[in-house]
Amino acid sequence: MGFSANKVAKDVKKIIDEFWSGKCEKEEATKRIKGILDDPERRIKVMRGENYTGVFENVLGKKRIAEFEELMK
Q: I need a surface site. Which of 10, 25, 36, 49 has the fewest CB within 10 A?
């Protein structure tokens, strides 16, 4: 089953937005994002080596990327 880069980025965006609005705790948000990154087919839609993909950066934007990095520490 294929995942588009856009779908993966929107899934991560949704998790971060839910975290920001208080719909889920930090631990839950981290666990859900790690679940996405644990799948190699979805991970490649987020990162190529050390860099984020263009689609991922465009969909999330700077503030969500910063939050994503905080959650992934």
A: 49
Place of tokens 């950066």: 57
- pTM comes to 0.93
Which residues are CB-neighbours of 54 under 8 A, at least 6 positions away?
none
Q: What is the pLDDT of residue 1?
A: 54
Q: Which residues pair with 48 in a beta bridge?
A: 51
pLDDT digits (tens, 9 = 90+) for 7-60: 999 999 999 999 999 999 999 999 999 999 999 999 999 999 899 999 999 999
33 and 68 in contact (C-beta within 8 Å)? yes
* Residue 71 CB neighbours (<10 A): 19
Sign, Cα dihedral of 22, 43, 11, 51: positive
The CA-CA-CA angle for residues 27, 55, 41, to 5°, reads 65
